[in-house]
Each structure stands twice: as C-alpha cells, then as structure tokens.
Amino acid sequence: MIIDILTIFPGMMAGPLQESIIGKAIARELIEVQVTNIRDYASGPHRTTDDRPFGGGSGMVMKPEPLAAAIASVRAADPSVRVILLSPQGRIFKQEIAFELSRLPHVCLVCGRYEGVDERIRNHYVDDEISIGDYVLTGGELPALTVLDAVARLVPGVLGSDESIAEESFVGGLLEYPHYTRPEIYEGHRVPEILLSGNHAAIRRWRRQQSLLRTRQRRPDLLKEEILGSEDRKLLAEAIQRERED
Ligand code: 9D3
Fold first, then answer.
1. Residues 182 and 225 in one domain
2. Under 8 Å CB-to-CB from 127, ≥6 apart: which residues?
3. How far, in Å, is the centroid of ligand 1 from the Cα of 93?
4. What is the pLDDT of residues 190-246, one digit of tens each?
5. Are residues 94 and 148 in the same domain?
6. Nearest Cα residue to atom 2 of ligand 1
7. CB within 6 Å of ligand 1 — which residues?
8. Are both 37 and 132 inside the same structural domain?
C-alpha cells in the first residue's frame, strides 16, 4: 500500500515514520510512505502557501494553487488514488474507516493548516474528508499520522501473529479485559487469582465478563451497539450481581 502525505511541515513526519511497527513496515516495504512538502509546488519569490481570506476576518487560508498542484502530481502518477483532506469538518475517524482505507492500494492524506483550505480544493480536488475527533488541533499533520498508524497496522503482514487484529477492542465492540504480567505481587497488589489457576476455560469466561462489565461502566454507548448473546447476558448479569454484593 502507498500512502502519500502532503504537508507544509514535512519535518513533523520523520520521527514517527522511523519508529516501531510503522518504521518496520516501511523498512519491510509492506507500506510505502511518500512525504511531499506542499511548498515545493508554490511559486513566487516567497513560495507562499497561505493568503488572507476574501470577505475579511482573522487568520489565513491555504491558497488553492500549491495544494492543487501537489494533489495533481499525485493523481498524475496514479489516477486511482483516494485523496483525503484531514479537516475538523470531516467524518469522524473510526476503526471501520481504517479497515476501509487499508483495502485501498493508494491513499493521499492532505494536511490542512491555518484556518483551513480554500473551499474550491475541498470541492474539486479532494475525494473524502476526515476529522479524528471533536477537539481543536493546529493542523492536519497529527491526524494524518493517526490515520496512517491505524491503517498501516491493518495491512497484511504488518502485525506479528502475536498481535493479531482478529480479537481486539472495538472490532468486537467491547473494551479489553484487564492485563497483568510479572511480578505476581506488585507493591502489595496481587494479580487476580484466576489468572494463575491454569484453568483456561475459567480464564476465558473471566476475561469476557471483565470486558462486558468494563464496557458497561466506561462506554455504555458501545454496549448498546452490540447485541449480546445469551451467554454474554448471563456473564454480565452475574458480574453486576457480584458488584452489588460488594
Ligand atoms: C480557531 C480555528 N477554528 C475554529 C474553531 C477552526 C479550525 C481550523 C483549523 C480548527 C482547527 C484547525 C486545524 N485542525 C485540523 O486541520 C484538523 C483537525 C482538528 O483540529 N481536530 C480533529 N481532527 C482534525 S483533522 C484536521
């Protein structure tokens, strides 16, 4: 899979792309990431990428020409590319969108800056618009890295068999059960006895129960989405009962 990133701050990408799972995926050529400085497509002595808004008001707007030229050059190389603008006005990024994008051969992430991009870019040069959530950032760079991270790990071969995506959070619609590792007693706090029992059926039951309880407590919105089976309903009812007794 190829991921293009268009930005006026290419330096923000270097570190994250070198490290950890993404760094390894690039080194192994499972994904190819091409970072382009939008300023390289700006003309004039100052190679400026922003300008004042028509109609007045505070802040600056990204000029259409450099952005359009940068996008056009990506499209010329591959007309099938999906061009996505990172913007506070986009659809909210979800795991489902990560799956959708991971099935595409080529995605181009366009990072907005300033107050935003000239509306004609949005209307005529972009296929899709994504926000990563309802909080105010300074630009689309960290959102682009977030999308890249979520998408890259879904590309076949990027994760080890150890870190499989089959049974993880959100896919099943539930939060994760609690995790523990050594030591068995840490500052006086013991690991739940059942995890040391060797009874794998009982451990599976306990984990599922913890997932259900935790989701109900912290993210009831997710539990409404998932239609629980009869076994899950029993496990949850039992956990709630035990909770009331304590
Ligand atoms: C003071 C600026 N704004 C009024 C509330 C509008 C605004 C313009 C540009 C707010 C943020 C930005 C820069 N942010 C992004 O480009 C961005 C973003 C975000 O801020 N939050 C969540 N997802 C994204 S994707 C791109």
1. yes
2. 82, 83, 84
3. 14
4. 999 999 999 999 999 999 999 999 999 999 999 987 789 999 999 999 999 999 999
5. yes
6. 115
7. 86-88, 112, 115-116, 131-133, 135-140, 143
8. yes
